[in-house]
Amino acid sequence: MENVFLIVGLGNPGEKYARTRHNAGFLLVEKAAERWRANWGLEKKFSAKLAKVERNGRKLFFCEPQTYMNVSGEAVGALSEFFRIPASNILIAVDDADLPFGQIRLRKSGSSGGHHGLDSIEHHLATREFARLRVGIGRQDGVREITNYVLGQFSSTENELLEKVLERAADQIECWLGEGIEKAMSKFNGVIDSENKEK
């Protein structure tokens, strides 16, 4: 449906994974839903937590799949089919270890970049033509195996910048909804430094 939008944050459910780097997508949709006063509830038939709100004549669904990261597409595909949401009205917020911490990048389509959550969504939607907002988490210098890093929590020194990144990324989602993806990309993609200035 033309006026229904689905904004999905990727992550892993449970306290064990709360506020880990791999859950940056969850953190972002929670920030956006809080801004728009959308209340969360568990929807078991979709294996997802959902927050719903109507805004400017549009119905928005914020989603946190509860299926674990690598099978996120099960929830996204089910929601898209049930509510008849076209891929062009879907935005996926996801962590990206290949982007430096403090950088965000919105694209209208593209490859998964090896991210298993995006792989799963592409499989279930049968398309790559959906927006993806990558939240940079960086990686440890000289370390190839990043599992422990991405499943680790943001450090106390990172948390201040993280909040500014999430605020800016939530602004970008709002711009995507109101002004379209081209405007949202040109206005917000980039690096946020500790003073919240674009570089």
Give a structural overview:
- With 199 residues, the protein is α/β, with parallel strands linked by helices.
- The protein has a single domain (4-191), classed as Rossmann fold (3-Layer(aba) Sandwich).
- It is 35% helix and 24% strand.
- The protein contains six helices and eight strands.
- Strands 2-3-4-1-5-7-6-8 form an eight-stranded mixed β-sheet, sandwiched between helices.
- Helix 1 (24-35) packs across helix 5.
- The protein is globular and about 45 Å long.
Per-chain topology:
Elements: E1 4-9, H1 24-35, E2 39-43, E3 48-55, E4 58-65, H2 72-82, E5 90-96, E6 103-107, H3 116-125, E7 131-136, H4 147-150, H5 156-179, H6 181-188, E8 190-191
Parallel strand pairs: 1-4, 1-5, 5-7
Antiparallel strand pairs: 2-3, 3-4, 6-7, 6-8
Main-sheet strand order equals 2-3-4-1-5-7-6-8
CATH level-1 class: Alpha Beta
Helix content: 25-40%
Q: What is the strand content?
A: 15-25%
List the uncertain runs.
none
Order of helices and strands: EHEEEHEEHEHHHE
Number of strands: 8
Q: What is the rounded distance between the termini?
A: 38 Å
| Helix count, DSSP H or I runs of 4 or more residues | 6
What is the arithmetic mean of pLDDT?
Answer: 93
**CATH T-level fold name:** Rossmann fold
The CATH architecture: 3-Layer(aba) Sandwich
**Any idea what the radius of gyration is?**
16 Å
Number of domains: 1
Label the overall shape. Answer: globular
Largest sheet: 8 strands, mixed
In CATH terms, the superfamily is Peptidyl-tRNA hydrolase
Structural class, from helix and strand content?
alpha/beta
